[in-house]
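Methods — Computational structure assignment.
A single polypeptide chain was analysed. Its primary sequence is given first, followed by the predicted tertiary structure written as structure tokens.
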Amino acid sequence: MAGRTSDSLSRRERQIMEIIYRRGQATALEVLAELPDPPTKTAVRTLLRILEEKGHLRHKQEGLAYVYVPNRPRAQAARSAFRRMLQTFFEGSLEKAVASHLVDEGGLSAEELQRLAELIRQARKKGK
């Protein structure tokens, strides 16, 4: 399974990936130190191995420690996760996702709405 990315991540796996993306790389002990309500060292090492098997991480050895680094750039992983979220909750429709967010309490600020309007304008220009 190594080399093939499985996008399905548990809450704890997502937390670990966030730490490694933020840091750029991390050892098991560095991940453990940053996890909320941390599990055991063995559990963290097991989760890192699972993330490697799923294709999200790879490691390099530095001295006695394994240093884990992401296999894909954060933006690429985010796009893949976003597509999966759209499929799961919004029938694959970006329009439904945006509409859902716009009707939520708080909605978007005037600045966010302006940036979205500009992105829509640019997308329309490309589509012509």
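Note: Residues 1-5 have pLDDT under 50 and may be disordered.
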